[in-house]
Amino acid sequence: MVKDDIVVGEDLQEKCCVYRNPNDAVEARVKDLLCRMTLEEKVGQMTQIERRVATADPGIIRSRFIGSMLSATGSGPAADASFCDWANMVNEFQKSALETRLAIPLLYGIDAIHGNGSVSGATIFPHNVGLGATRDPDLVREIGAATALEVKASGIHCTYAPCVATQRHKDISVCKDPRWGRCYESYSEDTEIVRNMTSIVTGLQGQPPKGHPKGYPFIAGSRNTIACAKHFVGDGGTENGQNEGNTVLHEKELERIHMAPYLDCIEKGVCMVMASYSSWNGCKMHSNRKLLTEVLKDKLGFKVIVPYRCELFVDHLLDLVNSGEVSVARIDDAVERILRVKFVARLFEHPYSEPNLLDSVTSKRHRELAREAVQKSLVLLKNGKDHSKPLLPLKGKPKTILVAGSHAHNLGYQCGGWTRKWLGFNDKENGRFTTGTTILEAISEGVGEETEVIHEENPSTETLQREDISLAIVAVGEFPYAESFGDDSKLEIPKDGKATDIINSVADRFPTLVIMISGRPLFLEPELLEKIDALVAAWLPGTEGGGIADVVFGDHEFQGRLPVTWFRSVEQLPMNAENECCDSLFRLGFGLTKAEGINVEEMCLSRLRHEINVDGLSCEYSEHVKDHAMVGNQGSSCNPSLVLV
C-alpha cells in the first residue's frame, strides 16, 4: 500500500500555523517551526538511525522524535525487495514520524552510489571512475536524473552521493594513489575532470533557476532527490591511500585540489555536504571547526546540512546542552539547516512515496542510458602485437570464440561494491540480484547463432588444444569491495581466480583480448602485457554488459580516456609530476582509438603550465587551451607529437 495523504500530529492545535502553510516563505516556516520545538524535539531532528534500529524498536521514532533514517546498502524489507516493497517500508516509518506532536516528516536516505543498488531490479550504472573515463558531463547529468527517479520511486528522499574526492597525494598536481579502497567512487585524479562531473548534482536535484542564491538548497520537483556531496574534504589524498587516513597538505593546495569540486556542487544548490572520516594534517575532519564552520558554512555560505553519518546518543547530547557545554544556539543552527532542506524538498506537503513513479523505474530508457555509459567508458589500452594489425574491433563472424575468466559471467563482479550489499555480491553465491547482461551473454548475443561460444572460466587442457578456436576473450579483475576493505598495498590482479594463469595459458594458444574489470589500475606484468593481443579497461560497468560487446564488435568506437594514471609498479606510488610522463605505464588521458597504432590523449586542464619535451624541443601550454588532441605512437612514450586544434 502506498499512501499519498498527510497525517497531522494529534497534539498539534494550530492547524493553520506558518510552518504548515506551503505558500509561506521557507525561511518563515523554518523560524516558526524552530520556535515551537522543545530541546528533545530538536535533538531528535539531529539524530539519524539505521533501519534496523527502528525495526528492533518500532516506537523509537515517536519517543525520540527521530528526524532522519538511512538504510545501509541492502538493509531493506527483504533480500529481494522490489521498489514497491521499499516504498511501503519507508511509508510505515514516515507514518510514525507524522504521529508526533509537530508532525515533522522523516528524511530517509540511502547510498545510491551508481544507481539505487539496494533495490531488486534497479539499473546499475558504471561506478564513478568509469564515468570519469567518458569525459561526458551531459551523460552524467542524465544518469543523475535516472538515479533520482529510481530512488524516489522507492520512497527514499536522499542519496548520499556524489563522491567528489580527487585522487591526489600531497601537493603534487598530477599524481594519485589507487591503493585507496574508495578509488572507484572518485571520477578522476584530475580536479577539472571531477569538477565537470558535478553535473550529476543537477541530474539528481534539478537545475536551479537563474539567480538562485549561492549555498541555498534546491530541489526541482517530485522526480528529484536530495544529493549529498562527499567527503569534505581531502579524503582522496590520504597518505598511502589509506581510507579514513591523514591528508598532509598546505591549506592553499587543499583548496585548489580537493575543495574546488565542492564549490561547483554548492553553486548547483546541493542540499548536503558530508564531512569526511579522514584527517587533515592530523586533525579529524569531524572536529575541524576551521574547515566545517569557518570555511564551509561561513566563507562559502553553505546554508544546509552537514551530516556526520553517525547515530547520536540523544541522552548524552541533551546532558551536554543542559550542562552548558553545547549551546542552544549551536543546536538551533543544526536544526535550522535540517528543516530548511525538508521544506525545500516539500516533505511536509508530500511525505509519502508517489505511486505514479513506480511506472518509470527500470525503464528501457534507463537501461539504454547505462549501456551508453559503458560504451563511452571503455578505455582501449592495447590493440594488436603489431600496430599495423589491430585485433579490435572484431570483424566478421568468427567460427568459434572462447570466453574465459572469473568475471566473464558474473553480474555481481561487474557491478562491484555498493550493490545489493555494502561489499557487493557474487552471482554464484547469491544468485542474480537484478536484471542485466553479463559479458558472456553480451558476446553470445553479439555474434549470433553462427558462432560457437565456448565458456569455461578456467579452460581445460582439452579446450586449449582445440584448433578451431578463432580467438579468446578473458574477463578478469577485482572482486567486489568497499571502503577500507578495498585498501590494497599490492594492487595485483587477484590470485583467487587464477587470472594470470588463465591469461597465460589462453594467450599461448589463441589471439587474446583481456577485459579488465576493476575500480582502479592494477599491476600488469610486462610479460603478460606483451603476450596478449588487446587490453580493455572496463572499470566496474554495472548491469549493462551489452555496452562492452557493442564496442568490441565495432558497433560503437572506443572513446574512453584514462581518468587516472596507470602505474608500472606499486613502488612508484604515490607518483609525482617529475617522473609521471616517462615512468607511468599509461598516462592520464590515454586511450587508443580503433585506428591502428594511434592513441588520443588529453592534456590535464587543471595544471597552470606544463612542459613536454618534443624531439628535444620545449613545448609549453596553458590550461586555457581547451580544445586539443595528442597524436602519437601506441604506448606511453615520453616524446609524443603535439597537435593543437
From TrEMBL:
Q: Which UniProt keywords apply?
A: Glycosidase, Hydrolase
Q: Name one GO molecular function term.
A: beta-glucosidase activity
| An example Gene Ontology biological process | glucan catabolic process
Concerning InterPro entries, the annotation shows: Cellulose_Degrad_GH3, GH, Glyco_hydro_3_C, Glyco_hydro_3_C_sf, Glyco_hydro_3_N, Glyco_hydro_3_N_sf
Family annotation (Pfam families)? Glyco_hydro_3, Glyco_hydro_3_C
Q: What residue stretches are annotated with the Glycoside hydrolase family 3 N-terminal domain?
A: 38-306
Q: Where is the Glycoside hydrolase family 3 C-terminal domain?
A: 378-593
Q: Which PANTHER family match?
A: BETA-D-GLUCAN EXOHYDROLASE-LIKE PROTEIN-RELATED, PERIPLASMIC BETA-GLUCOSIDASE-RELATED
Name this polypeptide is given: Lysosomal beta glucosidase
Record organism:
Morus notabilis
